[in-house]
Amino acid sequence: MEVTLQMQARGFLLAATAGLLLGGLYDVFRIFRALFRCGKRALFVQDLLFMLAAGAFSYLTALAANWGVVRLYLLAGEAAGFALYFLTLGNLTRCAAVFLRKTAEAAARPFFLAARKFLAAFRQRKKIHDIPKNNLKPPPNVVYNWGKVLRRIASGRNGLRHEGRSKQKAEKE
After folding, report:
1. What is the dihedral of CA 152, 157, 159, 161, to 10 degrees?
2. Quick one: which of 21, 52, 97, 127 could link to 34 by a disulfide (CB 3.0–4.6 Å)?
3. CA distance 142 to 8
4. Average pLDDT over residues 57-80
5. Using CA atoms in the order 92, 43, 18, 28, what is the torsion angle rounded to 10 degrees?
6. Tens of pLDDT along 90-111?
7. Among candidates 140, 3, 145, 124, which has minimal Cα distance to 74?
8. Smallest Cα–Cα separation from 22: which of 71, 64, 75?
9. What is the mean pLDDT of the chain?
10. In contact, 29 and 54? CB cutoff 8 Å
């Protein structure tokens, strides 16, 4: 079957329209990336999904325009439509997405600050309650100190520290 110039022009315009739609689809992913911070794995999955969708859409475009035969003018039409989208509507949607993200962050900032202060107060209260009352100076007759007490008694010194210190102070005076 012979491909006429009219069929090529129709296929080119159809492919350009498909490129515009693919640009819009990519912009959906780009807006999602602008609103939510994504890690490397999420970016990989998003790019993979876009490539699969673009491949399937390009095949359906070639099927509709030229019975599934991929020709250079179809690929050029898609590239031209994609570029046209990004030079016109793509800039507008990117600016709108950045504005939307900044507005959402500004609107959510007071709630995050209030939540942070509430959690900080809760954490501080928990820390105050966790502090034991006698944590500065443990009594000398606690079980883990008995080894030291017995060694002091065996060496001829008094087993209790504070009594020994008070005797030394009394002797100096």
Report:
1. -110
2. 97
3. 95
4. 88
5. -40
6. 888 888 888 888 898 899 898 8
7. 3
8. 75
9. 80
10. no
